[in-house]
Design brief:
The protein has helices at residues 3-25, 28-36, 39-64, 85-91, 94-97, 108-127, 131-140, 147-154, 160-168, 173-193. By secondary structure, the chain is mainly α. The protein folds into two domains: 3-64; 85-193, no CATH class. α6 packs parallel to α10. The longest helix has 26 residues, at 39-64.
Length: 194
């Protein structure tokens, strides 16, 4: 529909609205109530005119369509690694999922070294200390209350009590220590994300 027709329809709707307002402010409403005998009939007449204007506007919109602006594309956020991303990747790997047994791994020192570095990184982040201070805490076993995890990470021989606990879990002392360390690191990173 051409813009001139839209303007004509809009002007007619505004004229009806203006007439209704002017009538309410002037003596037109009083004269209409007196002539019709009831004020509800005046309200009904104004309502019918307003409803007619709405129907005309809707018909014009249906015939001509509505031109709407397109929303812009959402901007992407530049990806950045979050704290503990390396630990998450490691824990999602074969050791944490149980696909690799540290006792039978071709290079068990690799598993121990990886867990040790992760323990240092987690301790450094949680304690807000230097790398050397975090390394000293991990070497001393002060990074966790789990003695099996601490002993495994620092490379100490398992105690008799740790061997008994491992046997009760039907695991070797090496595997039990590695699993305890992985569970402890996983729990500490999950707590850090909350």
């Amino acid at each position: 529909m051409p813009p001139t027709r839209r303007l004509v329809v809009a002007a007619a709707a505004l004229a009806v609205t203006g007439f209704a307002l002017a009538g309410a402010l002037g003596g037109v409403v009083t004269a209409a109530v007196t002539g019709l005998g009831n004020d509800y009939l005046v309200v009904a007449a104004v309502g019918v005119v307003a409803l007619g204007a709405a129907v005309v506007v809707q018909a014009v919109r249906n015939r001509s369509g509505v031109a709407q602006a397109a929303t812009p594309d959402v901007e992407d956020v530049n990806p950045a690694p979050h704290a503990g991303a390396e630990l998450d990747a490691y824990l999602a790997g074969p050791l944490a999922s149980g696909r690799v047994d540290p006792a039978t791994d071709p290079d068990p020192s690799r598993v121990r070294a990886g867990l040790r570095e992760l323990a240092v990184a987690v301790e450094r982040r949680e304690s807000d200390c230097s790398r050397s201070a975090a390394r000293r805490r991990v070497d001393a076993g002060a990074w966790t209350d789990d003695s099996a995890a601490a002993a495994y990470v620092r490379g100490a021989r398992p105690t008799l009590g740790q061997r008994v606990r491992a046997a009760l879990h039907a695991q070797s002392a090496t595997r039990y220590g590695a699993r305890c360390a992985a569970r402890e690191l996983d729990a500490r990173t999950r707590e850090g994300r909350r």
